[in-house]
Amino acid sequence: MNSRSLLTSSASRRLLRPVADLIDQRIDRRLRAATAARTAERDQLHDAIELMKQHQLTVELLLGPRGRGLSRIVAHGPLKRLHAEVEELVGDREAARRNVAAAYRLLVAMESLGVGRIAGGTMNICGKLGTIPLLDPPNDDILEIGTLYGMFSAGLLRMMERDGRSPSVTIVDPFAGVQLQPGTPERSDPTGAPVDEHAVRTNLTLAGPAGATARVQRGFSEDPATRAAVSDRRYGVIVIDGDHSAAGVLADLEWAEEIAAPGAIVVLDDYGDAKWPGVKDALDKHLTGETRFTYLGKAAHSAFLRTAT
User: Fold this and answer.
1) Helix or strand or coil: residue 71?
2) Which of 81, 123, 133, 167 would bridge 163 by S-S if both were Cys, CB 3.0 to 4.6 A apart?
3) Which residues of the chain have pLDDT under 50?
4) pLDDT of residue 181
């Protein structure tokens, strides 16, 4: 009898059936175990995805447009560029990173508690808040021309205080109910809050005593009466963020020449931003003439100047 007939005979099949049954049982157990493992992995993956969705929703409510009307979510590339720009301005890598991180946490906290928002993109705001204290202004008097909701001034007060200083702030703004810019339509703010002096004073209280005692001057920065009311001192920091037309920026720069303290830091917002070409045109023109200002550099569309001592 050949081997094939031996394996296919009835007697052989009866003898081999227990072995075959045992093999089938082992295969079945392994298949069931593999199926159970895949089911467990699928359940774990499902649970992980659901948890990720919950975390994403939480972050969105805290930082995204769903909860804020605008996004404060940070991307790696822009943050890396901002670190490099601030480091180049201040000459200290660790201080630049530390202050940018502190500014971001402050931005989120201020907008969570305050009325409205801080004007500008996330990196732009963090660049200004983080850099100004590190440039060591000669005194603690701050002038902000154009404030929107006053929240940037409140944040800058807190950042200066973190550096051991005792800042005071003066704000000049027309408080027209909406954000005004020549050549752009008047429209409500994305946050839905009215742009008025009441909102500004509410937000300034977030900075504690220094915010509560802030000077707020209603009016346009080119008005002689407005200028006269706040030109009683020489400012260590001047933030120019008002009229973005070339003529308006030039007028504010010329006024800043008169009231900046020796060694003062002047910050010109939206410099190099394609949406506001008049800002760069005005500064570039101003710096070609007789001026006390030296251009230090820029960070996230803000130009930083130092006044001659």
Assistant:
1) coil
2) 133
3) 1, 7
4) 53
pLDDT of residue 45: 75
Residue linked to tokens 């710096």: 287
Contact 113, 208 (CB under 8 A): no
Residue type, 212: A
What pLDDT does 267 receive? 98
Strands, sheet with 260-269, edge to edge from the N-terminal-most edge strand: 215-218, 168-173, 141-145, 235-240, 260-269, 302-307, 293-298
Both structure tokens of 251: 């007028």
CA atoms of 140 and 135, how far apart (whole Å): 12
218 vs 58: CA distance, rounded Å: 39
pLDDT, position 50 = 77
Place of tokens 């202050």: 99
Ramachandran region, residue 260 (left: φ > 0; alpha: ψ -120 to 50; beta: rest):
beta
Both tokens of 106, joined, read 């402050």
E strands in the chain = 141-145, 168-173, 215-218, 235-240, 260-269, 293-298, 302-307
Place of tokens 């994403």: 56
Q: Which pLDDT value is given to residue 14?
A: 63
What 3-state DSSP class applies to 271?
coil
Distance of CA 140 to CAs 172, 214, 236, Å? 17, 12, 6
Rounded distance between C-alpha atoms, residue 15 and residue 40, angstroms: 39
Interatomic CA distance for residues 296 and 301, integer angstroms: 13
Q: Is 197 exposed, middle or buried (0-12, 13-18, 19+ CB in 10 A)?
A: middle
- Predicted confidence at residue 33, as pLDDT, reads 77
Please compute, for residue 244, the number of CA atoms within 13 A of its CA located in the half-sphere on the CB side: 19
How high is the pLDDT of residue 49?
76
Taking the C-alpha atoms of residue 33 and residue 69, their distance in angstroms, rounded to an integer, is: 50
Residue 54, phi then psi, degrees to nearest 5:
-65, -45
